[in-house]
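[Protein data]
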Amino acid sequence: MNETDILNPRVFDPEAVDPETEQFNKRIEELIATLPPSHMRTPQEVRADRESGKSVMGPIKHLDEARNRVVPGRERNVPVRVVVPPEVRGVYLHMHGGGFVLMRADHFDELLVTTANRCRVAVVSVDYRLAPEDPYPAAANDCETVAVWLANNVRSEFGTERLIIGGESAGANLSVVTLVRMRDRHGFTGFSKANLVYGCFDISMTPSQRNWGERNLVISTPMIEWFSNQYVPRIEKRDDPDVSPLYADLSQMPPALFTVGTLDPLLDDTLFMHARWLAAGNRSELAIYPGGTHIFNLFPIKIAKEANAKIYDFITMAGQ
């Protein structure tokens, strides 16, 4: 069950949550309760657990179809994870999630390979620098570097001119920041669509982020604050449009698909950004999934399959 384009109060009714989703959320919450709170640890400790498979996401699976490359840039050369399917009808520039602090591009091989094969697109996932070792603007700069390289080389590298952009959570933030930078700094508006999945679009914190509290369904208010403190230590910088693209000029943006669950502390980020996208004169579609937590589409449940099928269709049809 999902609603697109308009807000329907039924999606927020607890009765709308599928029993499978409800039971899965309960198991996830119980599992997380057995783990040390991430916001009370160092980023390095949390990363080590993810690498060893101790996180809620389980073991990392590397796939042979995904390869490492390096994109040349003026500031630095940027590593990327690339998947090229047998038939290429476009290129999907992907920014992974992880709160700007956790994860690497190769942690998402299953998602990248499935996207490439289902949508017939080459996937280029940016392995951007992480905070706190490299706080803002390092990650955004790396994503911009790869976007500029693709804009100049997509035809020669991949035999197509269709470009799609997108990502999850922090990756959705970086996707919008990249779109705005490409328009303003490079005069480029050639991305055909934007796939923005439960994005964090306001680092200064939307009401749903602030009011969620300590209940931990993957993320919580203290965790969001922890991520923000690593990425943008200066509080007064957090409403800068280059940090929080909710405040940016969003004119000339491509059609977007916004995906979010009702039990995600970042719910307001998606609701607000969808409205601003439309108000700026762009096309936007909103998909809300009852009971969906943060990163719900990465879990083995029915609403994840529904959300991912819609995302794959959106990417496949980009530019067509």
Notes: Strands lie at 66-71, 78-83, 91-95, 122-126, 163-168, 191-197, 256-261, 284-289. The longest helix spans residues 138-158. The two ends are 26 Å apart (CA to CA).
